[in-house]
Amino acid sequence: MSVAQNPLSVEVALLRDDVALITVQGYLDVDTATEFQHHLANQLHHGRRHFLLDLTDVPFMDSSGMNIILRVYQEARDLPGSVHIISPQPAVRRILDLTGVSITVPVSESVEQALELVDHPQQQVQP
Q: What percent of the chain has pLDDT over 90?
């Protein structure tokens, strides 16, 4: 699939000085991963420590997208900061679960739930 058929849209909203809500629409794959990475790197450069990645409108994600999420997770953790995935579609959630990414990077159903985990990280303990 070409980028022209499946363009990526990335919107950034600052919820706080150190918290960025990154809303992604479209396929997050080898053709679009570099653009996604640029947005995340820009937010890191501007001092954001916490990243809320809204994947509600991402119907497909391959290993390129997962690798970028894991990379920003590692960089944010070293700050210290955090990365949270919000509301992935079932196909994306299945990939996150099968690869173990959802064990490392918390998955929330809403922005509010993710913000609660930013404010109270001890609640991230999985049952």
A: 87
Q: What is the pLDDT of residue 71?
A: 94
- Cα–Cα distance for residue pair 24/41, rounded to 1 Å: 15
Q: What are phi and psi for residue 123, nearest 5 degrees?
A: -75, -5
Count of domains forming the chain? 1
2 in any annotated domain: no
- Report the mean per-residue pLDDT for the chain: 90
The strand order across the sheet containing 82-86 reads 9-16, 19-25, 50-57, 82-86, 107-108
pLDDT in tens, 55-76: 999 999 999 999 999 999 999 9
Look at residue 15 and tell me if it is in a domain.
yes
CATH of the domain at 33: 3.30.750.24
